[in-house]
Amino acid sequence: MGVQSLTQHEAEERSRLLAVDRYEIDVDLTGLASGSRVRCVSRISFACRQPGADSFVDCAADVQSATLNGARLPAAVDGRIALAGLAERNELIVVSTQVTDADRQGVHRAVDPADDRVYAYTDFTPDYARFVWACFDQPDLKAPYAFTVTAPPDWLVLSNSGDPRIEEAGSARRWTFPPTPPLASYNTVINAGPYYEIRREGAGHDLGLFARQSLAPVLDRDADELFTLTTQGLEFFSDRFGMAFPQRKYDQVFTPEFPGAMENFGCVTWMDWFLRRSTPTRAEWDIFARYLLHELAHMWFGNIVTMRWWDDLWLNEAFAEFASNWAAVRATSYTDAWAAHLAGEKLKAYFVDQGPTTHPIRQAVRDVAEAEATFDAITYPKGASVLQQLMTYIGEAEFSTGLTDYFAKHAWGNTTLQDLIDALAGASGRDLDAWREGWLETAGTDRITLERDATGPVLVAKGPNGPARPQILAVGAYRSHDDRLERVAVEYVELTGGRTMLELPPADLYLVNDEDLTFASTRPDAVTRDGFVGNAAGLPTPISRGVAVATAWDMLINGEATAAEVVRCLTGVLAVETSASVIEPYLNLAVEAADLWSPDSERDLLLRAVAATCRRLAGDPAYWKAALRGFARTAADLEQVAWLQAESGEDVDLHWRALVRKAQLGGPTGEEARLLLDRDPDPEAWVSRLRVRAATPDPAEKEAVWDTLVRERAVPIASVHSVASVFWSAGQEGLLEPYAEAYLDLVPTFHRGGVMPATTFTRSLFPFFGADRTFVERAERLALESVPVVRTNLLDRADRMSRMLRARALTSVEAAEDAGRETHQQPIPGPGTTPTGLSAEPG
């Protein structure tokens, strides 16, 4: 059966015609205990504003029967059931079944390999509820949902509203949940299985955490921090939005095989990959804290107030991303959240926004298929950064007042961009029309460059298609003092033209976009360009160093700096960095620059420079694990791998990473991997073993891994990238060329299973080795024939590869020699020796 994608015009017409009063959804999950079938009965009460008119209801499940006001309806066609001759008041009853398999959306059955227990979840973004039961699957037909779920007797059932009535139902149990507030169909959920549960009071709410039984010890380990973050977020958002979360219960469910995280009202679903089997690093906690706050912010942005159509997806995602950083800095211990955002997500946004897949933050979306392609770095981190600029532009107090007014006026309804702009303009007294047009309706990145003339420093600003956007940014003036840079002045500039004179004193370095208040590609003046890259480590704060790193990285991706220069910048910063939240992101960037962006003739030398930095960092207990993870990707020979294994102690995760590197270097791993697999308690330890095999330069192993990863799709979605990234290893081009061809052959199948698998397989399997410019050109042509979500991600990967190939052609003998001198000056200790402590000197 084909399934038709809902267009914006169809949604507007249906919303004009219909008003949904209530859903009563009966769901029978007992068939999932040992099978794969879910049975649903959907009862929908709705009104028609034009009696006698025709419409349709969405249902892409297998329809067993359907009646409208007692009359039998014809069979579904293309995922729709026609509704003819509607009355003023209507009752629709649809009985449907759905099978859970890898190619079906909406509902999923997972089996824990540790104990064979079965868990089930629903996941409905963007319009996958229709694959499970009949509904009007569009965001602006909100209604209360009353769920009744029949499940095996040993299962817990969780949904949006808490406190269900539980009754025995023969050999099963029936869970009857109270009606929800008015919700969009994609914000509803059912999670079920024999979950392990922890509950605690926080911020006046009953908070719940759930995980599969085999991960109970991990959830116990992390529960205090998770409850603390949730409580802090609830208190912060209630205050800044002027509205408390309106439900007593707030549950978070970590479920196997879930493809990400989903903000279902009152019952957030997480992939349980977030419950790290190895004790999390500070950077991992920083990321998780922001993700947790992101999903919590969605209770307001997305659930309580929902976008009218998918062209305003940013009202959900950009705001939740922004609010997570805002809350982390203001209300939690993760006060370097904006620095971590800059070191990770924002750099991705800069890349995409300067490439072929850029688009306005708010863009036209003709149908839901196009909407699937907008869950990207423009909507999320660029949107978050733009909102940070907006808060700077109008003031934090005014921003909060505007949001309070917005929620008071629009709670439980649907909004558009203009509704929010009106609320913020009213609170601030500023006309935001030019700001809205420039930032939200225009694609591309501003370029802000520093120049010096006879009168002093000058900012030269250009927008992507003309004048720069309206914005406020900071420029810091720094002078050298005892091998460090001290800020002697800062100027906050509101750009009003192409050239802006700065009233700053003479300085050794001027930092454009100091404090990272705006979203723009910045450049130092030509005179201090080389010193700027080399002296980033001298800057005094994590955010100032982060701005310098971001500038260097942006120069790399645009062909204005070499990989060697960027490695030198990053290793220098890492030698002095004080924020544990950015150590691991910077190490990842340094490894990427050395491994993926450097010429073949310089790769080993640059990797040695990064390895030397990792060895020094490993001497600081706060950075030990992150540093050894970096070393596991850069160890130069088997002797260094042996040192890493000795240093890893009882950390099983580090031992797996060491074996991956050993395999890449051609060392024997079979027996060690077998023994490590036997003692690893992780139920997904077989994936770690698969990574070792993926890294092995052996044709038979490559073929076996490709079968498991690609043809069988047996690897959990959260682990696909970790396996694919080592499958495509440098130095194995001869083995990898056939798989580059196989990738292109598989592109038409990547959309199977929905938006998350499509995104993951398109991006993660893209070959960064074993491919050339001809391959890139073929990938670009193939992208144009693909569904939107595959097309966008494939064009992004092809653009990245094209830039890498250009960077690999930019040999830099002098820069490479600098990296070599760094390696020579800071020798790598041999096995069994104690690594040096954290150097205070920049690289």
Automatic annotation (TrEMBL):
MF terms in GO: alanyl aminopeptidase activity; metalloaminopeptidase activity; peptide binding; zinc ion binding
Chemical reaction(s) catalysed: Release of an N-terminal amino acid, Xaa-|-Yaa- from a peptide, amide or arylamide. Xaa is preferably Ala, but may be most amino acids including Pro (slow action). When a terminal hydrophobic residue is followed by a prolyl residue, the two may be released as an intact Xaa-Pro dipeptide
Any GO BP annotation: proteolysis
Domain ERAP1-like C-terminal: 509-781
Cofactor: Zn(2+)
InterPro entries in the record: Aminopeptidase_N-like_N, Aminopeptidase_N-like_N_sf, ERAP1-like_C_dom, Pept_M1_aminopeptidase, Peptidase_M1, Peptidase_M1_aminopeptidases, Peptidase_M1_dom, Peptidase_M4/M1_CTD_sf
EC number from the UniProt entry: 3.4.11.2
Residue ranges, annotated region (Disordered): 813-843
Pfam families with a match to the protein in the record: ERAP1_C, Peptidase_M1, Peptidase_M1_N
GO cellular component: cytoplasm; extracellular space; membrane
Sequence ranges assigned to domain Peptidase M1 membrane alanine aminopeptidase in this UniProt record: 230-439
Top-rank lineage group of the source organism: Bacteria
Domain Aminopeptidase N-like N-terminal positions: 116-186
Keywords, sorted A to Z: Aminopeptidase, Hydrolase, Metal-binding, Metalloprotease, Protease, Zinc
PANTHER family: PROTEASE M1 ZINC METALLOPROTEASE, PUROMYCIN-SENSITIVE AMINOPEPTIDASE-RELATED
Family from the record: Belongs to the peptidase M1 family.
Protein name: Aminopeptidase N
The gene coding this protein: pepN
